[in-house]
Structures are given as structure tokens and as C-alpha cells.
Amino acid sequence: MPIAELFIVATPIGNLGDFTQRAIDTLSKVDLIAAEDTRHSRTLLASYAIARPLVALHEHNEEAMAPKLVDKLLAGESIALISDAGTPLMSDPGFRLVRLAIEKGVRVTPLPGPSAIITALSVAGIPTDRFVYEGFLPARQAARIARLNALCAESRTLVFFESSHRILDCLADMATALGSDRSVAICRELTKQFETVLRGPVAELQERVRSDPNQQKGEFVLVVAGASENVDEKMTQAVSMTKALHEFLSASQAARVAAKLCGVSRRELYALIDTAIE
Length: 278
Description:
By secondary structure, the protein is an alpha/beta fold. It has helices at 21-29, 38-46, 62-74, 95-103, 116-124, 141-151, 167-178, 202-211, 231-245, 251-262, 266-271, 273-276, and strands spanning 5-9, 32-35, 54-56, 79-82, 107-111, 131-136, 157-162, 183-188, 196-201, 220-224.
């Protein structure tokens, strides 16, 4: 029995001119297209006169749909997976389908193209040799601050997605958790008509966005500079954190947590415990 391919197809994040010819050709020929939002995708596909059967695959039905789609693949049908915009699986559904297809021996073929993450990194003016993609931060402030605190010592560049109704709160929490002078690039509406990229210290950008309602609209990618890799600064931070945590934890537990969060040697921090905790 023939086994067809599962194509992972990137679609434009805004500008329709970024749709690759290979993606258009593939979507025009597959037996079925799995889309996050069929209404949104139908409009996009119509722009290129692509008329193929569509099926919805989103976070609420993927667990049930993935086996059904893989059965179609095993029966010889070809399927393309697309998301609302950009490269599938990047904060979008599709992981369960891809994993199951691989487990069943189905060939999975990527069709590269637009990605908001890479697009933002390319214009941020912040180091891109090492970066961490964190997706969306938690919606609740307490959880968001906790996550940012856990990332405060991360030396790699950080990349986040954010929504218009949380952008100001997010920037305020970044200033608190990461420091008001941490360099950030706010990439808004990338490749679209009202694209803007603001660069500077997070506290400064927070005020710029607050004072300009237009900068509070649209979709955002935040590129945040990593923490300084100065070992002495990290160890100083770890010592301070150990002191604070010792109010609730034993000395060894406090040092263990602080070492992990600050990215320092646990053994070296242990050696400083006697002087760090009074």
C-alpha cells in the first residue's frame, strides 16, 4: 500500500508576496490541507486560486484528528499542514500529528518559508548566534513574573510572542524582573502595512508604547538581550538569592535553587554558603 507524504508548509505572516512558489505548487496538488482555522486559510488559498479540501486541525481537536489524518496518509493520500501564519508548530498545533506520522513511518517533508521568530531576530540588532524561543509568557501577572525571574540569568537572546492587550503589562514586568536597562526590540506587525521595530532599554520602550496607542495594536515579537555572562555578577546574584530563599528553605536547598536560576556552579555556590548565609 503506498504511503504518501505529510508536508509542513510555511505561509506568509503578513505580506502575501512572501509565499514561496514551492508552497503554492504543493498546496495545489495535495489531497488534503489541514489548517488551524479553515475560514482564515480558505481566504489565503483563494488568493492563489488553490482549491483543495480543507480540514480543521487545532489545539482542541488535534489529539482526536491526528490518528485519522495519519490513517489517510497510510492509505496513500498526501496532506499539507499549515497554520494561520508562518511556520507550523511554532506556538501552533501540529506536534501530535507530526510525531504520530513519524512513528508510523510516514515521510514528513518541510517546506520552509516565513517565520516571525527568525524575521524578528534578523532586524532586532541583538545577538542571534544563540537564542531561546519562549513563545507566549503566562497571561497572569504572578506567573509571568515568575517565568521572567527564572529567565533573568539566561545569557542567550530571548524571543517571545505577545498580544496587543498584554504588551504594556509584559514590558512593565520585564523591566521589573530583568532590569529597566535590558535591551529589547519590539517587532510589531512584521511584514504588514504598519510594521514597526522599536529598539532600546525596556523601560524606555515601555514609555514609548504607553504614549502611542498605535504601538499597542497588532501582533508582537519581543527580542530580549540575554543577561551578562560575567561570572562574578552571576555569583553575586546567586549569593543574594540564596540569602533570600534561606528564609523558606534549608541552606543547601536555597543554594541549589539559586545556582540553577542564576546559571552558576552549584559546587562553587555551596562553598560560599557559610559567608552567604548569616
